[in-house]
Amino acid sequence: MKVLTYGEIMDGGLSVFHSVAKLDDHHLILTFEGVIRVDNPYRYLHTYLEELAKVLPRQSVTETTMDFVKMRFCNSNGFYVIMDIVDAVYNLVPGRVTVRRIADDDWQCETLPILLNLSEEHIAARTNFEDVKAP
Amino acid sequence: MSAGGNRTQTAVGASISIAPLDHVAGDVAGLLGNFLFDLLGMFYPRQICSKANVVVIELVTNVMEHCSIRDGALRVDLKIDGDELMITVANPATEDEFKAVSDRFTIIANAEDPRKLLADTVYRRRIDKAKGGLGLMRLTAESKFKLTAEYEQGFLVVKALFPMRGFA
Q: Which of A33, A67, B95, B151 sits between 20 and 30 A of B66, alpha carbons compared?
């Protein structure tokens, strides 16, 4: 497993959110952990977005997992930055995308599909969900 | 600890007031939301606790970002029992501020498909990263709250109601 890049949000001196992009052979794994609640998440994650744009096209990827199971909350201030991260995946690497999420979580079941832009046919065709119980 | 009775019929109430708003220096929305999430977790399923958490965080964040009368008070009230979850957030507001919020509530309340309204708004505003109302829209589209806004004695009073059918 090779870590490609990661991004982190600090709030009050503590790490409250981090996302890591890892490569396991040809399998890209993006994890999302913690909460996004800060006013301007781009302040912390713009470098991560720039790094994703640089490193993802250089990888040989056949499938991707985006794991949201440990992302407990995203307020509306965080919607666009999540969209930018998932866009980087859909636009820069090929193959199927599995989205891991919590089965009975309102934000992951109702709003996350909007942020993934599943209304776009080509994105929906590449995407499947793996619903898991809350950890 | 009593093993009898239906824990999801437990009546819980909480009222929190902070004044002046100007003295708030940290993530008060997160603190209040997480406190209520943990408190309700003793009695109610995670999905209900999450609804309370989301609504408190979004509504209190709105107050902290938009309330212009900073020497006034923020009030948060929670009431839950087997029938409904009701969260009320109040802050001082001018009549013009109330009118602006009220117009936004009317659009959200009249939407035939709240989820489509949220999706269309997110996609339309993504270009300039504009926010304005996404938090309120997600409370109806995602968490299925019924929202109302009233103007009472100089306070903007936002109420979020979730009927507990199927959970209690």
A: A33
Output the pLDDT for position A77. Answer: 85
- Chain A residue closest in CA terms to B134: A76
Q: Do B54 and A73 touch (CB under 8 A)?
A: yes
CB contact under 8 A, A76 and B135: yes
B135 to chain A, any CB pair closer than 8 A? The answer is yes
Which ipTM was obtained for this model? 0.92
Q: What is the DSSP string of B32-85?
A: HHHHHHHHHTTTS-HHHHHHHHHHHHHHHHHHHHH---TTS-EEEEEEE-SSEE
Tell me which chain B residue has its CA closest to the CA of residue A134: B46
Which residue type does B36 have?
L
Least confident of A87-101, B129-143, B149-163: B129-143
Asked if residue B143 lies in contact with residue B54, where contact means CB atoms within 8 angstroms, the answer is yes
Q: What are phi and psi of A99, to 5 degrees?
A: -105, 115
For B108-119, what is each residue's pLDDT tens digit? 989 999 999 999
In whole angstroms, what is the distance from residue A31 CA to residue A8 CA?
12
Q: Which CATH class is domain A2-132?
A: alpha beta
pTM for the model: 0.90
- The span from the CA of A80 to the CA of A82, in Å, is 5
Phi, psi (degrees; rounded to nearest 5) at B95: -65, -35
CB contact under 8 A, B27 and A37: yes
Asked whether the beta carbons of residue B30 and residue A37 sit closer than 8 angstroms, the reply is yes
